[in-house]
């Protein structure tokens, strides 16, 4: 077997320069085969060096690995002591070394029993997501869809009425703020406290009849007052200032509440916890470093802001009184529990952090 030495040598050098390893190996392999035969060849020095560079390390590694395996096996045989093995067998009754502990369990469940228990547990878990259940996926989907549709429709209608110069735009605007608020209540819970997210997290009906009556009264007052009294009884500058103040309160209140819920994570709940869980922690960073109850702060000022934008005199007074009384009592009772949970740590935190709601310390 013979190779064209000049051509192959030139090609090998080119491949070496371009680092085309795969094709270079093929050429070197051919060259290496030639060196293992008795046939004359015209191998160039470059071909021989390339063959050795490729294959010699592989051969050496194979030989080294073989020698190491033989040595390891020999060492293992040398370490084996038949007398020691016999003594161990007798002393441990054929149960192995003393480090092994025999199992005393006699009622080991069969694979079918284990499978049945796992299936039952999974069925119980999945049932919570079925229609009519607290975490019903279909219930969550339909509520999200309806809130999104209501938000889009009322926002467009409100903008159209503003463009037309009709003061009734405040009524659909009020509905759009409600739609966004209730969607974000569920969304932030699902995002930061996923295991606690359920249909009631929307707060559509879980706040009781008083909540529904308040919003119904506010919508009715907005619609009737601006339909029958389209012109504001207040001077335009004051009317404009109150409108801007209301919009600002809605934006800030919603942002603060949503951010507080996200930062509290699993420590936030729509229902006051009367027992401390193992995962409960006192959150004092973010919004909680500035306000002691930022979610309550946000809800309070969001509610006041909606009535300022709507221009409701009666419901503004009603919202202010009801919200203040509600949060005053809730914060007082909740903080008694928090002092019991966290002791002096919460007492010090309460002393240095305000609530942000008038006359609630």
UniProtKB/TrEMBL annotation:
Gene Ontology terms describing biological process: methylation
Region ranges (Disordered): 1-47, 91-113
Enzyme Commission number(s) of this protein: 2.1.1.100
Keyword check for Membrane: yes
Catalytic activity as recorded in UniProt: [protein]-C-terminal S-[(2E,6E)-farnesyl]-L-cysteine + S-adenosyl-L-methionine = [protein]-C-terminal S-[(2E,6E)-farnesyl]-L-cysteine methyl ester + S-adenosyl-L-homocysteine
GO molecular function, one term: protein C-terminal S-isoprenylcysteine carboxyl O-methyltransferase activity
Membrane topology: Multi-pass membrane protein
Chain segments annotated as coiled-coil in the UniProt record: none
Membrane-spanning residues: 145-165, 171-192, 238-256, 299-324
InterPro entries: ICMT_MeTrfase, PPMT_MeTrfase
Amino acid composition bias (Polar residues), ranges on this chain: 98-113
Location(s) in or outside the cell: Endoplasmic reticulum membrane; Membrane
Biased composition annotated in UniProt, kind: Basic and acidic residues: 10-24
Keywords, in A-Z order: Endoplasmic reticulum, Membrane, Methyltransferase, S-adenosyl-L-methionine, Transferase, Transmembrane, Transmembrane helix
Cellular component aspect of the GO annotation: endoplasmic reticulum membrane
Similarity section: Belongs to the class VI-like SAM-binding methyltransferase superfamily. Isoprenylcysteine carboxyl methyltransferase family.
Designated name of the protein: Protein-S-isoprenylcysteine O-methyltransferase
Species, as recorded: Cudoniella acicularis
Lineage, opening ranks: Eukaryota, Fungi, Dikarya, Ascomycota, Pezizomycotina
